[in-house]
């Protein structure tokens, strides 16, 4: 529908733009390739957040990530929300717009949770039609992200990876693959995360998310308030092998450290990618080389 090429250009390594870091980013212009902004935080008429957003948008590529589309819900699509999303996109010209493959609201009540869907062909038909409406309205393909989950439905007739692939194909949308969510769900449901990766169609994978979680032994919760753990780094390397260079971003929503600490974690992602792709050149790697030069 929108263009022939499925995935967009590799952006490099990005961070979630958080309020606590607005001033640091503007003042220091850190060597980070791009930022992901939470769309809902900026759906306001003006004010300080908008000031920072516009100033940062002049210096960095941005992508928009939302949590309220409820693309899998049964309420009609919220056109006020979509209009506000489109307006924001016109303002900041994001490279792409993403949300989650889930449902969040019912009867107009927002649960503020990213709730999983039953994996059936009926669900695919339902969601794909809604994605079509959204993409037609926005005039571009959107990315949908796999959510972490803690329950499954008796009604499901297929595995999550088959559901995600089939949905993306039927809806003609792109995939935001959250590597941490795959790990979290694999631990909670007992599937093999490598099987998940091996089954996802590479041609629609536009972005990776990395994040930390809370591990309670018997179960794992996707809290985004910790560093990325070693098994997720390992899974990330497997993902790079399967999907090649994919724009990668670290999500941190709680227990937010100073910006340089997050930048260092992002450099770890870039370093792992550079091991597999030695000619990789990005601002994130430049920052590392610079820091090492200064340390000598
Ligand atoms: Fe994510």
From TrEMBL:
NCBIfam families: PRK05409.1. Pfam families: MbnB_TglH_ChrH. This is UPF0276 protein K6Y31_19230. It comes from the Bacteria. Gene3D superfamilies: Divalent-metal-dependent TIM barrel enzymes. Coiled coil: none annotated. Belongs to the UPF0276 family. The lineage of its organism: Bacteria, Pseudomonadati, Pseudomonadota, Gammaproteobacteria, Alteromonadales.
């Amino acid at each position: 529908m929108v263009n022939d090429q499925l995935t967009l250009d590799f952006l490099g390594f990005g961070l979630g733009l958080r309020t606590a870091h607005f001033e640091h980013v503007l003042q220091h212009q850190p060597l980070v390739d791009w930022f992901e902004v939470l769309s809902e935080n900026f759906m306001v008429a003006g004010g300080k957040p908008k000031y920072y957003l516009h100033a940062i948008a002049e210096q960095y590529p941005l992508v928009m990530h939302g949590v309220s589309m409820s693309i899998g819900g049964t309420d009609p699509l919220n056109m006020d929300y979509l209009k506000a999303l489109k307006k924001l996109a016109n303002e900041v010209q994001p490279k792409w717009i993403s949300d989650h493959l889930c449902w969040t609201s019912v009867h107009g009540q927002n649960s503020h949770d990213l709730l999983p869907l039953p994996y059936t062909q009926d669900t695919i038909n339902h969601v794909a039609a809604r994605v079509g409406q959204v993409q037609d309205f926005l005039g571009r393909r959107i990315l949908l992200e796999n959510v972490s989950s803690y329950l499954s439905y008796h009604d499901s007739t297929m595995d999550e990876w088959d559901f995600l692939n089939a949905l993306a194909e039927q809806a003609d949308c792109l995939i935001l693959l959250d590597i941490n969510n795959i790990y979290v769900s694999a631990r909670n449901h007992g599937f093999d995360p490598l099987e998940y990766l091996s089954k996802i169609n590479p041609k629609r994978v536009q972005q990776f998310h990395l994040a930390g979680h809370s591990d309670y032994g018997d179960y794992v919760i996707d809290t985004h308030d910790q560093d990325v753990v070693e098994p997720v780094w390992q899974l990330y390397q497997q993902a790079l092998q399967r999907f090649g260079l994919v724009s990668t971003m670290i999500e941190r929503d709680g227990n937010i450290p100073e910006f340089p600490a997050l930048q260092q974690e992002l450099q770890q992602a870039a370093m792992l990618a550079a091991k597999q792709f030695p000619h990789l050149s990005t601002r994130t790697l430049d920052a590392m080389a610079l820091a090492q030069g200064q340390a000598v």
